[in-house]
Amino acid sequence: MFAPNLYKDKIALVTGGRSGIGYGIAKMMLQLGATVYIGSRKEESLQKAAEELAEFGDVHYQALDIRKTEEIQSMAAKIKAKQGRLDILVNNAGGQFPALAEMINDKGWNAVINNNLNGTFYMIREMGNAFFLPQKSGIIINIIADIFRGFPGMIHTGAARAGVENLTKTLAVEWSDYNIRINSVAPGTIESSGLSTYPKQIQEMFNDAREAVPLGRFGTVEDVANAVGFLGSPLASYISGITLYVDGASHLNSEKMGLPNILKSLMKPNK
Amino acid sequence: MNFENKVAIVTGSGSGIGRATAVLFAEQGAKVVVSDINEAGAKETLDSIVAAGGKALNIPCDVSDKSQVEQLFSQTKSEFGRVDIAVNNAGIGGILEFTHKYPDDLYDKIIQVNVNGVWYCMKEALKIMLEQGEGGSIVNISSVAGIGAAPRMSAYAASKHAVIGMTRTAAHEYGKYKIRVNAICPTIIETPMGMGYASEEEGLIQMIKHSIPLKRFGQAEEVAESIAWLCSNESSFVTGMELRVDGGMKA
Protein backbone atom coordinates (compact mmCIF):
# COMPACT_ATOMS: atom_id res chain seq x y z
CA MET A 1 0.00 0.00 0.00
CA PHE A 2 3.01 2.28 0.36
CA ALA A 3 3.18 4.83 -2.44
CA PRO A 4 6.49 4.54 -4.33
CA ASN A 5 7.58 8.05 -3.29
CA LEU A 6 6.47 7.83 0.36
CA TYR A 7 9.97 8.74 1.60
CA LYS A 8 10.99 11.09 -1.19
CA ASP A 9 13.38 13.85 0.02
CA LYS A 10 13.52 12.35 3.53
CA ILE A 11 16.82 11.89 5.36
CA ALA A 12 16.96 8.83 7.60
CA LEU A 13 19.55 7.30 9.92
CA VAL A 14 19.36 3.59 10.75
CA THR A 15 21.69 2.20 13.43
CA GLY A 16 22.70 -1.41 13.08
CA GLY A 17 21.95 -1.01 9.38
CA ARG A 18 24.61 -3.48 8.32
CA SER A 19 22.52 -6.65 8.57
CA GLY A 20 19.21 -8.22 9.53
CA ILE A 21 16.32 -5.95 10.46
CA GLY A 22 18.37 -2.73 10.17
CA TYR A 23 19.46 -3.63 6.66
CA GLY A 24 15.84 -4.39 5.74
CA ILE A 25 14.66 -1.04 7.09
CA ALA A 26 17.39 0.83 5.19
CA LYS A 27 16.53 -1.02 1.98
CA MET A 28 12.78 -0.31 2.33
CA MET A 29 13.34 3.41 2.95
CA LEU A 30 15.77 3.65 0.02
CA GLN A 31 13.25 1.94 -2.26
CA LEU A 32 10.64 4.50 -1.20
CA GLY A 33 12.91 7.42 -2.05
CA ALA A 34 14.79 8.32 1.15
CA THR A 35 18.43 9.22 1.57
CA VAL A 36 19.66 6.77 4.19
CA TYR A 37 22.65 6.78 6.54
CA ILE A 38 23.61 3.48 8.12
CA GLY A 39 25.89 3.04 11.09
CA SER A 40 27.36 -0.03 12.74
CA ARG A 41 30.47 -0.92 14.70
CA LYS A 42 32.08 -3.16 12.08
CA GLU A 43 33.24 -0.82 9.37
CA GLU A 44 34.27 -3.42 6.83
CA SER A 45 30.92 -5.22 6.70
CA LEU A 46 29.14 -1.86 6.99
CA GLN A 47 30.88 -0.70 3.83
CA LYS A 48 29.93 -3.93 2.08
CA ALA A 49 26.29 -3.46 3.11
CA ALA A 50 26.33 0.13 1.84
CA GLU A 51 27.73 -1.02 -1.49
CA GLU A 52 24.88 -3.53 -1.83
CA LEU A 53 22.26 -1.00 -0.72
CA ALA A 54 23.51 1.56 -3.25
CA GLU A 55 21.52 -0.39 -5.82
CA PHE A 56 18.31 0.85 -4.17
CA GLY A 57 19.14 4.51 -3.65
CA ASP A 58 21.26 7.20 -2.04
CA VAL A 59 22.99 5.47 0.88
CA HIS A 60 25.83 6.68 3.13
CA TYR A 61 27.68 4.97 5.95
CA GLN A 62 29.99 5.68 8.84
CA ALA A 63 31.28 3.40 11.60
CA LEU A 64 29.26 4.07 14.72
CA ASP A 65 29.37 2.68 18.24
CA ILE A 66 26.17 3.94 19.86
CA ARG A 67 27.80 3.62 23.30
CA LYS A 68 30.23 6.40 22.42
CA THR A 69 28.84 9.93 22.42
CA GLU A 70 31.73 11.33 20.37
CA GLU A 71 31.09 8.81 17.59
CA ILE A 72 27.41 9.76 17.58
CA GLN A 73 28.32 13.43 17.38
CA SER A 74 30.66 12.67 14.51
CA MET A 75 27.81 10.94 12.65
CA ALA A 76 25.55 13.93 13.31
CA ALA A 77 28.21 16.30 11.97
CA LYS A 78 28.58 14.21 8.84
CA ILE A 79 24.84 14.26 8.18
CA LYS A 80 24.58 17.98 8.96
CA ALA A 81 27.44 18.90 6.63
CA LYS A 82 25.98 17.02 3.68
CA GLN A 83 22.19 17.22 4.21
CA GLY A 84 21.65 20.03 6.70
CA ARG A 85 18.94 18.08 8.51
CA LEU A 86 17.67 14.70 9.67
CA ASP A 87 14.03 13.61 9.44
CA ILE A 88 13.95 10.08 10.79
CA LEU A 89 16.06 8.19 13.33
CA VAL A 90 15.66 4.42 13.60
CA ASN A 91 17.36 3.00 16.70
CA ASN A 92 17.80 -0.59 15.67
CA ALA A 93 21.32 -1.38 16.90
CA GLY A 94 21.36 -3.73 19.85
CA GLY A 95 22.26 -7.17 20.97
CA GLN A 96 21.93 -9.76 23.69
CA PHE A 97 22.81 -13.31 24.56
CA PRO A 98 20.59 -16.03 26.05
CA ALA A 99 21.40 -16.57 29.72
CA LEU A 100 19.73 -17.54 32.97
CA ALA A 101 19.39 -14.57 35.30
CA GLU A 102 21.32 -16.17 38.16
CA MET A 103 24.33 -16.72 35.92
CA ILE A 104 24.71 -13.25 34.40
CA ASN A 105 27.72 -11.44 35.86
CA ASP A 106 28.10 -7.68 36.17
CA LYS A 107 30.04 -7.40 32.94
CA GLY A 108 27.42 -9.27 30.91
CA TRP A 109 24.55 -7.35 32.47
CA ASN A 110 26.21 -3.98 31.96
CA ALA A 111 27.17 -4.79 28.38
CA VAL A 112 23.56 -5.42 27.40
CA ILE A 113 22.16 -2.45 29.33
CA ASN A 114 24.87 -0.20 27.94
CA ASN A 115 24.25 -1.20 24.37
CA ASN A 116 20.47 -1.44 24.25
CA LEU A 117 19.36 1.18 26.76
CA ASN A 118 22.19 3.66 27.20
CA GLY A 119 23.22 3.61 23.55
CA THR A 120 19.64 4.23 22.43
CA PHE A 121 19.32 7.15 24.84
CA TYR A 122 22.62 8.67 23.70
CA MET A 123 21.46 8.42 20.09
CA ILE A 124 18.12 10.09 20.83
CA ARG A 125 19.68 12.86 22.94
CA GLU A 126 22.41 13.66 20.42
CA MET A 127 20.18 13.55 17.33
CA GLY A 128 17.51 15.48 19.24
CA ASN A 129 19.96 18.26 20.10
CA ALA A 130 21.64 18.28 16.70
CA PHE A 131 18.49 18.10 14.58
CA PHE A 132 15.02 17.42 15.90
CA LEU A 133 14.68 20.11 18.59
CA PRO A 134 16.13 22.99 16.54
CA GLN A 135 14.21 21.80 13.46
CA LYS A 136 11.01 21.48 15.47
CA SER A 137 10.32 18.24 13.66
CA GLY A 138 11.46 14.67 13.78
CA ILE A 139 10.41 11.05 13.82
CA ILE A 140 12.07 8.48 16.06
CA ILE A 141 11.45 4.74 15.94
CA ASN A 142 13.00 2.39 18.49
CA ILE A 143 13.26 -1.30 17.72
CA ILE A 144 12.75 -3.22 20.95
CA ALA A 145 11.53 -6.80 21.48
CA ASP A 146 8.52 -8.79 22.65
CA ILE A 147 8.75 -7.82 26.32
CA PHE A 148 4.99 -7.76 26.89
CA ARG A 149 5.19 -10.54 29.48
CA GLY A 150 8.84 -10.23 30.46
CA PHE A 151 11.67 -11.89 28.56
CA PRO A 152 12.43 -15.26 30.18
CA GLY A 153 15.92 -16.41 29.20
CA MET A 154 17.17 -12.90 28.44
CA ILE A 155 16.41 -10.80 31.50
CA HIS A 156 19.02 -8.18 30.65
CA THR A 157 17.62 -7.31 27.27
CA GLY A 158 14.06 -7.46 28.62
CA ALA A 159 14.96 -4.84 31.22
CA ALA A 160 16.86 -2.69 28.73
CA ARG A 161 14.08 -2.80 26.13
CA ALA A 162 11.47 -2.02 28.79
CA GLY A 163 13.58 1.03 29.56
CA VAL A 164 13.50 2.05 25.92
CA GLU A 165 9.73 1.51 25.79
CA ASN A 166 9.34 3.81 28.77
CA LEU A 167 11.59 6.54 27.39
CA THR A 168 9.52 6.33 24.21
CA LYS A 169 6.41 7.19 26.24
CA THR A 170 8.21 9.95 28.13
CA LEU A 171 9.54 11.67 25.01
CA ALA A 172 6.22 11.34 23.16
CA VAL A 173 4.98 13.78 25.77
CA GLU A 174 8.10 15.76 26.73
CA TRP A 175 9.13 16.50 23.14
CA SER A 176 5.62 16.89 21.72
CA ASP A 177 6.17 20.67 21.77
CA TYR A 178 8.84 20.14 19.11
CA ASN A 179 6.51 18.20 16.81
CA ILE A 180 8.53 15.05 17.37
CA ARG A 181 6.77 11.70 17.07
CA ILE A 182 8.42 8.74 18.77
CA ASN A 183 7.27 5.12 18.76
CA SER A 184 8.62 1.64 19.43
CA VAL A 185 8.35 -1.45 17.28
CA ALA A 186 8.46 -4.80 19.09
CA PRO A 187 9.32 -7.67 16.75
CA GLY A 188 8.66 -11.24 17.77
CA THR A 189 11.16 -13.85 16.67
CA ILE A 190 12.34 -12.90 13.20
CA GLU A 191 13.95 -15.13 10.61
CA SER A 192 17.10 -13.08 10.16
CA SER A 193 20.83 -13.51 10.19
CA GLY A 194 20.84 -13.18 13.98
CA LEU A 195 19.06 -16.50 14.53
CA SER A 196 21.91 -18.60 13.21
CA THR A 197 24.21 -17.23 15.92
CA TYR A 198 22.39 -19.21 18.63
CA PRO A 199 23.50 -22.67 19.80
CA LYS A 200 22.07 -25.72 18.03
CA GLN A 201 19.73 -26.72 20.88
CA ILE A 202 18.19 -23.27 20.88
CA GLN A 203 17.76 -23.40 17.13
CA GLU A 204 15.88 -26.69 17.58
CA MET A 205 13.67 -25.02 20.15
CA PHE A 206 12.84 -22.45 17.51
CA ASN A 207 10.96 -25.14 15.60
CA ASP A 208 8.50 -25.58 18.47
CA ALA A 209 8.38 -21.86 19.08
CA ARG A 210 7.48 -21.25 15.46
CA GLU A 211 4.37 -23.41 15.77
CA ALA A 212 3.36 -21.67 18.98
CA VAL A 213 3.08 -18.31 17.22
CA PRO A 214 -0.65 -17.76 16.61
CA LEU A 215 0.05 -16.88 12.97
CA GLY A 216 2.06 -20.09 12.73
CA ARG A 217 5.34 -18.60 11.54
CA PHE A 218 8.19 -16.38 12.58
CA GLY A 219 8.33 -12.88 11.22
CA THR A 220 10.42 -11.72 8.32
CA VAL A 221 12.73 -8.75 8.13
CA GLU A 222 10.24 -7.23 5.68
CA ASP A 223 7.42 -7.53 8.22
CA VAL A 224 9.37 -5.35 10.65
CA ALA A 225 10.58 -2.96 7.95
CA ASN A 226 6.98 -2.43 6.81
CA ALA A 227 5.91 -1.54 10.36
CA VAL A 228 8.77 0.96 10.60
CA GLY A 229 7.82 2.22 7.14
CA PHE A 230 4.29 2.87 8.34
CA LEU A 231 5.28 4.63 11.59
CA GLY A 232 7.95 6.72 9.88
CA SER A 233 5.56 8.05 7.26
CA PRO A 234 2.70 10.60 7.17
CA LEU A 235 0.32 7.61 7.26
CA ALA A 236 0.99 7.56 11.02
CA SER A 237 0.86 11.34 11.53
CA TYR A 238 -1.34 11.03 14.63
CA ILE A 239 0.50 8.10 16.23
CA SER A 240 3.03 8.78 18.99
CA GLY A 241 4.13 7.02 22.16
CA ILE A 242 2.99 3.54 21.14
CA THR A 243 4.62 0.14 20.95
CA LEU A 244 3.65 -1.70 17.79
CA TYR A 245 4.00 -5.46 18.14
CA VAL A 246 5.04 -7.19 14.94
CA ASP A 247 4.90 -10.72 16.24
CA GLY A 248 1.94 -12.66 14.84
CA ALA A 249 0.24 -12.20 18.25
CA SER A 250 3.05 -13.98 20.15
CA HIS A 251 2.84 -11.37 22.90
CA LEU A 252 -0.58 -12.78 23.77
CA ASN A 253 0.87 -16.26 24.30
CA SER A 254 1.59 -17.15 27.90
CA GLU A 255 4.02 -20.02 27.29
CA LYS A 256 7.42 -18.37 27.56
CA MET A 257 9.46 -21.12 29.22
CA GLY A 258 10.96 -22.63 26.06
CA LEU A 259 14.20 -20.69 26.13
CA PRO A 260 14.81 -20.89 29.92
CA ASN A 261 14.16 -24.65 29.83
CA ILE A 262 16.77 -25.12 27.10
CA LEU A 263 19.22 -22.92 28.98
CA LYS A 264 18.68 -24.95 32.14
CA SER A 265 19.40 -28.18 30.29
CA LEU A 266 22.54 -26.65 28.77
CA MET A 267 23.94 -24.90 31.80
CA LYS A 268 22.73 -27.10 34.65
CA PRO A 269 22.69 -30.58 33.13
CA ASN A 270 22.46 -32.35 36.52
CA LYS A 271 19.36 -30.62 37.76
CA MET B 1 -3.86 -0.39 -6.23
CA ASN B 2 -3.36 -2.25 -3.00
CA PHE B 3 -6.83 -3.63 -2.44
CA GLU B 4 -7.63 -4.68 -6.02
CA ASN B 5 -9.98 -7.71 -6.02
CA LYS B 6 -10.57 -7.36 -2.28
CA VAL B 7 -14.02 -6.98 -0.79
CA ALA B 8 -14.34 -4.84 2.34
CA ILE B 9 -17.31 -4.27 4.62
CA VAL B 10 -17.21 -1.09 6.70
CA THR B 11 -19.98 -0.68 9.28
CA GLY B 12 -20.86 2.79 10.42
CA SER B 13 -19.57 4.21 7.17
CA GLY B 14 -22.31 6.84 6.86
CA SER B 15 -20.00 9.39 8.49
CA GLY B 16 -16.70 10.02 10.25
CA ILE B 17 -14.04 7.33 10.54
CA GLY B 18 -16.16 4.73 8.74
CA ARG B 19 -16.76 7.01 5.78
CA ALA B 20 -13.09 7.98 5.48
CA THR B 21 -12.17 4.29 5.63
CA ALA B 22 -14.70 3.23 2.99
CA VAL B 23 -13.53 6.04 0.69
CA LEU B 24 -9.85 5.12 1.17
CA PHE B 25 -10.47 1.41 0.47
CA ALA B 26 -12.40 2.30 -2.69
CA GLU B 27 -9.62 4.65 -3.84
CA GLN B 28 -7.19 1.77 -3.43
CA GLY B 29 -9.26 -0.55 -5.59
CA ALA B 30 -11.41 -2.51 -3.14
CA LYS B 31 -15.08 -3.29 -3.65
CA VAL B 32 -16.64 -1.68 -0.62
CA VAL B 33 -19.87 -2.34 1.22
CA VAL B 34 -21.01 0.88 2.83
CA SER B 35 -23.26 0.15 5.78
CA ASP B 36 -24.91 2.34 8.37
CA ILE B 37 -28.12 2.72 10.32
CA ASN B 38 -28.11 6.29 8.99
CA GLU B 39 -29.20 5.65 5.42
CA ALA B 40 -28.85 9.25 4.24
CA GLY B 41 -25.22 9.35 5.42
CA ALA B 42 -24.49 5.96 3.85
CA LYS B 43 -25.94 7.16 0.56
CA GLU B 44 -23.67 10.22 0.63
CA THR B 45 -20.63 8.00 1.20
CA LEU B 46 -21.75 5.68 -1.59
CA ASP B 47 -22.33 8.55 -4.00
CA SER B 48 -18.88 10.05 -3.39
CA ILE B 49 -17.21 6.68 -3.96
CA VAL B 50 -19.15 6.02 -7.16
CA ALA B 51 -18.56 9.58 -8.40
CA ALA B 52 -14.81 9.01 -8.00
CA GLY B 53 -15.05 5.85 -10.09
CA GLY B 54 -14.99 3.36 -7.20
CA LYS B 55 -17.02 0.21 -6.72
CA ALA B 56 -19.40 0.20 -3.79
CA LEU B 57 -22.71 -1.06 -2.55
CA ASN B 58 -24.94 0.22 0.23
CA ILE B 59 -26.46 -2.34 2.61
CA PRO B 60 -28.16 -0.67 5.57
CA CYS B 61 -27.66 -2.41 8.90
CA ASP B 62 -28.36 -1.98 12.58
CA VAL B 63 -25.41 -3.98 13.94
CA SER B 64 -27.17 -4.61 17.26
CA ASP B 65 -29.66 -6.81 15.38
CA LYS B 66 -28.09 -10.20 14.67
CA SER B 67 -30.39 -10.98 11.75
CA GLN B 68 -29.51 -7.70 10.04
CA VAL B 69 -25.80 -8.47 10.45
CA GLU B 70 -26.31 -11.94 8.96
CA GLN B 71 -28.13 -10.29 6.08
CA LEU B 72 -25.30 -7.74 5.63
CA PHE B 73 -22.68 -10.45 5.25
CA SER B 74 -24.75 -12.89 3.18
CA GLN B 75 -25.81 -10.13 0.79
CA THR B 76 -22.19 -8.96 0.46
CA LYS B 77 -21.21 -12.52 -0.41
CA SER B 78 -23.95 -12.89 -3.00
CA GLU B 79 -23.27 -9.49 -4.60
CA PHE B 80 -19.46 -9.32 -4.46
CA GLY B 81 -18.65 -13.03 -4.13
CA ARG B 82 -16.49 -12.87 -1.02
CA VAL B 83 -15.34 -10.96 2.09
CA ASP B 84 -11.66 -10.20 2.68
CA ILE B 85 -11.85 -7.28 5.08
CA ALA B 86 -14.30 -6.42 7.84
CA VAL B 87 -13.99 -3.09 9.61
CA ASN B 88 -16.32 -3.23 12.59
CA ASN B 89 -16.62 0.47 13.19
CA ALA B 90 -20.27 1.17 13.99
CA GLY B 91 -20.61 2.45 17.53
CA ILE B 92 -22.28 4.97 19.79
CA GLY B 93 -20.96 7.14 22.60
CA GLY B 94 -23.82 7.68 25.02
CA ILE B 95 -23.95 10.64 27.37
CA LEU B 96 -21.54 12.12 29.89
CA GLU B 97 -22.67 10.99 33.33
CA PHE B 98 -21.21 9.52 36.48
CA THR B 99 -21.57 5.78 36.91
CA HIS B 100 -24.03 5.82 39.82
CA LYS B 101 -26.39 8.02 37.82
CA TYR B 102 -25.85 6.43 34.38
CA PRO B 103 -29.21 5.28 32.91
CA ASP B 104 -29.41 1.49 32.69
CA ASP B 105 -31.31 1.54 29.42
CA LEU B 106 -28.58 3.63 27.80
CA TYR B 107 -25.93 1.30 29.20
CA ASP B 108 -27.80 -1.63 27.62
CA LYS B 109 -28.04 0.20 24.30
CA ILE B 110 -24.30 0.98 24.26
CA ILE B 111 -23.45 -2.65 24.99
CA GLN B 112 -25.86 -3.85 22.31
CA VAL B 113 -24.31 -1.68 19.61
CA ASN B 114 -20.64 -1.53 20.61
CA VAL B 115 -20.17 -5.05 21.98
CA ASN B 116 -22.89 -7.24 20.48
CA GLY B 117 -22.56 -5.42 17.17
CA VAL B 118 -18.85 -6.15 16.90
CA TRP B 119 -19.46 -9.70 18.14
CA TYR B 120 -22.11 -10.48 15.48
CA CYS B 121 -20.02 -8.91 12.72
CA MET B 122 -16.88 -10.72 13.76
CA LYS B 123 -18.67 -14.08 13.84
CA GLU B 124 -20.09 -13.63 10.35
CA ALA B 125 -16.77 -12.39 8.97
CA LEU B 126 -14.90 -15.32 10.53
CA LYS B 127 -17.35 -17.89 9.14
CA ILE B 128 -16.96 -16.55 5.61
CA MET B 129 -13.17 -16.15 5.87
CA LEU B 130 -12.75 -19.69 7.23
CA GLU B 131 -14.87 -21.06 4.40
CA GLN B 132 -12.83 -19.13 1.83
CA GLY B 133 -9.62 -20.51 3.36
CA GLU B 134 -7.47 -17.59 2.24
CA GLY B 135 -7.16 -15.69 5.47
CA GLY B 136 -8.49 -12.19 5.92
CA SER B 137 -8.26 -9.08 8.02
CA ILE B 138 -10.65 -7.86 10.69
CA VAL B 139 -10.26 -4.46 12.33
CA ASN B 140 -12.44 -3.63 15.32
CA ILE B 141 -12.73 -0.03 16.35
CA SER B 142 -12.11 0.31 20.06
CA SER B 143 -10.98 3.57 21.65
CA VAL B 144 -8.54 5.05 24.12
CA ALA B 145 -11.53 4.39 26.41
CA GLY B 146 -10.86 0.70 25.68
CA ILE B 147 -7.46 0.73 27.35
CA GLY B 148 -7.96 3.13 30.24
CA ALA B 149 -10.33 5.24 32.26
CA ALA B 150 -12.88 7.48 30.58
CA PRO B 151 -14.52 9.53 33.33
CA ARG B 152 -18.29 9.93 32.95
CA MET B 153 -18.26 7.43 30.09
CA SER B 154 -18.21 4.18 32.04
CA ALA B 155 -20.65 2.36 29.75
CA TYR B 156 -18.64 3.37 26.70
CA ALA B 157 -15.37 2.39 28.39
CA ALA B 158 -16.79 -1.01 29.36
CA SER B 159 -17.96 -1.62 25.79
CA LYS B 160 -14.62 -0.63 24.25
CA HIS B 161 -12.62 -2.73 26.73
CA ALA B 162 -14.79 -5.68 25.67
CA VAL B 163 -13.80 -5.07 22.04
CA ILE B 164 -10.11 -5.42 22.99
CA GLY B 165 -10.79 -8.75 24.72
CA MET B 166 -12.59 -10.14 21.68
CA THR B 167 -9.89 -8.86 19.36
CA ARG B 168 -6.99 -10.41 21.25
CA THR B 169 -8.78 -13.72 21.68
CA ALA B 170 -9.85 -14.00 18.05
CA ALA B 171 -6.31 -13.15 16.92
CA HIS B 172 -5.09 -16.06 18.99
CA GLU B 173 -7.81 -18.45 17.81
CA TYR B 174 -7.65 -17.73 14.08
CA GLY B 175 -3.97 -16.94 13.50
CA LYS B 176 -3.38 -20.38 12.09
CA TYR B 177 -5.99 -19.67 9.43
CA LYS B 178 -4.14 -16.46 8.47
CA ILE B 179 -7.02 -14.37 9.66
CA ARG B 180 -5.58 -11.32 11.38
CA VAL B 181 -7.64 -9.45 13.96
CA ASN B 182 -6.58 -6.08 15.30
CA ALA B 183 -8.15 -3.13 17.08
CA ILE B 184 -7.74 0.60 16.64
CA CYS B 185 -7.87 2.91 19.63
CA PRO B 186 -8.54 6.50 18.55
CA THR B 187 -8.85 9.44 20.90
CA ILE B 188 -11.40 12.11 20.04
CA ILE B 189 -11.45 12.52 16.27
CA GLU B 190 -12.97 15.47 14.45
CA THR B 191 -16.09 13.64 13.34
CA PRO B 192 -19.79 14.21 14.03
CA MET B 193 -19.57 11.75 16.96
CA GLY B 194 -16.30 13.10 18.34
CA MET B 195 -17.40 16.70 18.13
CA GLY B 196 -20.80 15.80 19.58
CA TYR B 197 -19.19 15.96 23.02
CA ALA B 198 -17.87 19.43 22.24
CA SER B 199 -21.38 20.78 21.91
CA GLU B 200 -22.13 19.37 25.34
CA GLU B 201 -19.16 20.75 27.20
CA GLU B 202 -16.65 23.06 25.59
CA GLY B 203 -14.43 23.24 28.68
CA LEU B 204 -14.03 19.47 28.79
CA ILE B 205 -13.15 19.30 25.12
CA GLN B 206 -10.40 21.90 25.56
CA MET B 207 -9.05 20.00 28.57
CA ILE B 208 -8.88 16.77 26.58
CA LYS B 209 -7.21 18.54 23.66
CA HIS B 210 -4.61 19.90 26.07
CA SER B 211 -3.95 16.38 27.37
CA ILE B 212 -3.01 15.17 23.86
CA PRO B 213 0.75 15.61 23.33
CA LEU B 214 0.30 16.49 19.65
CA LYS B 215 -2.12 19.24 20.86
CA ARG B 216 -4.87 18.56 18.38
CA PHE B 217 -7.66 16.11 17.69
CA GLY B 218 -7.18 13.53 14.98
CA GLN B 219 -8.72 13.55 11.54
CA ALA B 220 -10.89 10.70 10.30
CA GLU B 221 -8.45 10.23 7.41
CA GLU B 222 -5.58 9.61 9.83
CA VAL B 223 -7.51 6.78 11.46
CA ALA B 224 -8.50 5.43 8.04
CA GLU B 225 -4.82 5.22 7.02
CA SER B 226 -4.07 3.07 10.07
CA ILE B 227 -7.05 0.82 9.39
CA ALA B 228 -5.98 0.41 5.77
CA TRP B 229 -2.42 -0.41 6.83
CA LEU B 230 -3.72 -3.10 9.20
CA CYS B 231 -5.65 -4.63 6.28
CA SER B 232 -2.71 -4.48 3.86
CA ASN B 233 0.12 -6.88 3.11
CA GLU B 234 2.49 -4.43 4.81
CA SER B 235 1.15 -5.54 8.19
CA SER B 236 1.02 -9.26 7.45
CA PHE B 237 2.70 -10.24 10.77
CA VAL B 238 0.68 -7.84 12.93
CA THR B 239 -2.25 -9.40 14.78
CA GLY B 240 -3.83 -9.21 18.22
CA MET B 241 -2.65 -5.64 18.46
CA GLU B 242 -4.46 -2.57 19.68
CA LEU B 243 -3.09 0.28 17.63
CA ARG B 244 -3.48 3.64 19.32
CA VAL B 245 -4.14 6.58 17.00
CA ASP B 246 -4.27 9.12 19.78
CA GLY B 247 -1.61 11.78 19.28
CA GLY B 248 0.29 10.29 22.21
CA MET B 249 -2.59 10.73 24.67
CA LYS B 250 -2.21 7.34 26.35
CA ALA B 251 1.59 7.13 26.07
Overall 3D shape of chain B: globular
What structural class do the secondary elements of chain A suggest? alpha/beta
**Over the alpha carbons, how many angstroms does the gyration radius of chain A reach?**
18 Å
- Largest sheet of chain B, described in full? 7 strands, parallel
Task: Average the pLDDT over all residues of chain B and give the rounded result.
Answer: 96
Question: In terms of structural class, how would the helical and strand content of chain B be classed?
Answer: alpha/beta
Mean pLDDT of chain A: 94
Helix content of chain A: 40-55%
Distance between the termini of chain B: 34 Å
Strand order of the largest sheet of chain A: 3-2-1-4-5-6-9
Provide a descriptive summary of the structure in words.
The complex is a heterodimer of chains A (271) and B (251). Chain A is α/β, with parallel strands linked by helices and 271 residues long. Helices cover 45% and strands 15% of the residues of chain A. A seven-stranded parallel sheet of chain A has the order 3-2-1-4-5-6-9, with helices on both faces. A two-stranded parallel sheet of chain A has the order 7-8. The termini of chain A are far apart. By secondary structure, chain B is an alpha/beta fold. A seven-stranded parallel sheet of chain B has the order 3-2-1-4-5-6-7, with helices on both faces. Chain B is globular and about 50 Å long. Classes of the chains: A alpha/beta (271), B alpha/beta (251). Chains A and B meet through helix 5, strand 8, helix 7 and strand 9 of A and helix 5, helix 8 and strand 7 of B.
